[in-house]
Design goal:
single chain, alpha+beta, Immunoglobulin-like, Glutaredoxin, five-stranded mixed sheet, four-stranded mixed sheet, 11 helices, 15 strands
């Protein structure tokens, strides 16, 4: 008797498992001449057409698929050359309805993930359509003022769309719908938000998905993307640190000061010599600039081409130099001169926040103008 009961339970459980891996999709599409509905599965590598069905005279249709994963996966319903994205998992019973253009006017019930996808997707598509409408306003006959207004309108809408996208991702970070939202891009857009900062959102979603859907096949994909972004950021960081030749020399107190430690600021790399006797005027002009722009991220890294420590330190103290000043006391034999190909003193290089040389031997108004631009 016990054996019979066990076999019966096993059969029931097997049947339930089989049923739970199935998904039923039904609905009604009206307002189009198209009469076929297609079901497509989207994988990381390809899109696979799974099934198709003809709608009846009232626009109704039914589809069923088996062997659906226990965690949500991306599928598309295709009608009239438009796609409705769905996130389906075994056991879902989906109802879809749409009138006219299905991608912008559909409703879905029976799947929380697919309902979230609809919420995001329709807002995102509407925004993209409006952006294209603004672009269409441009023409050869517009005045500069009209172009400026259109550009302003475009920029505001673009930022609004991005804010909504990022808000959706954070609000639904533990849902596969957020994974979908992470990968949506507007026209000609390479990044989700701002290049390096994208990894923050990917990591936030991955950590939350690991709690909600630890078996999701999207999780290792996210982890791989995060690892690739981290590697790229690390590589770019190394490139930035070596964009300009390094100078690491002692200051008047014997402490090593490195030029690369100022990456992120606008830096004036100044070569000078206290022994030449013209440094008072030079440093007086630089003091005005330093006082004016230091709080905005301006720094001076001054390399002394002297051989007498006493002369160098005396000039620093008399002139009350407030910025970084270093020297190896090797005079014209200093390797720093050769690295930067310095042919005369004083000489300077203006370096932007990214560590790239933006100007050479700038003085007076031209130097200040360039500093202001870079800041």
């Amino acid at each position: 008797m016990k054996k019979i009961i066990f076999i019966a339970l096993t059969l029931v459980m097997g049947l339930a498992s089989c049923q739970s891996s199935k998904v039923n999709i039904s609905g009604r599409f009206v307002g189009s001449q198209a009469d076929m509905v297609y079901l497509e599965q989207t994988t990381a590598l390809e899109q696979i057409l799974l099934d198709s069905v003809k709608i009846d005279e009232n626009g109704r249709f039914k589809l069923q698929i088996g062997n659906v994963a226990e965690t949500p996966s991306l599928y598309n319903i295709i009608f009239d050359n438009e796609r409705i994205p769905l996130l389906l998992m075994g056991g879902d019973n989906i109802e879809l309805n749409a009138a006219g253009k299905v991608a912008r006017n559909y409703t879905v019930i029976g799947s929380l993930e697919s309902e979230l996808l609809q919420q995001f997707n329709q807002s995102f598509i509407d925004g993209a359509v409006k952006l294209n409408g603004i672009i269409a306003k441009f023409s050869d006959g517009l005045s500069d003022e009209q172009r400026k207004e259109i550009t302003k309108e475009y920029s505001k809408l673009y930022l609004d769309i991005k804010k909504q996208q990022l808000h959706f991702i954070i609000e639904n970070k533990n849902r596969i719908a957020a994974v979908y939202a992470l990968h949506q891009r507007l026209l000609n857009e390479a990044y989700l938000f701002n290049g390096d900062s994208d990894v923050i959102y990917y990591r936030t979603v991955a950590d939350a998905i690991a709690e909600t859907y630890p078996e999701s096949h999207y999780l290792p994909i996210l982890r791989s993307q995060i690892a690739r972004m981290d590697a790229q950021i690390s590589l770019l960081s190394q490139v930035k640190e070596t964009t300009i030749p390094e100078i690491s020399l002692p200051d008047m107190f014997g402490n090593k000061r490195s030029l690369s430690s100022n990456i992120g600021k606008v830096v004036l790399l100044q070569f000078w010599s206290a022994a030449l006797g013209n440094s008072n005027t030079l440093n007086a002009d630089l003091k005005e600039l330093y006082t004016k722009y230091r709080e905005q991220g301006f720094e001076i890294f001054q390399v002394s081409i002297d051989t007498s420590k006493a002369v160098w330190i005396n000039a620093i103290q008399e002139q009350k130099i407030p910025w970084i000043t270093v020297s190896d006391l090797r005079g014209e034999s200093s390797p720093a001169l050769g690295v930067y190909n310095v042919q005369k003193l004083p000489s300077n290089y203006l370096i932007n926040r990214e560590g790239h040389i933006a100007g050479k031997d700038l003085t007076g108004e031209s130097l200040e103008a360039e500093i202001k631009k870079l800041l």
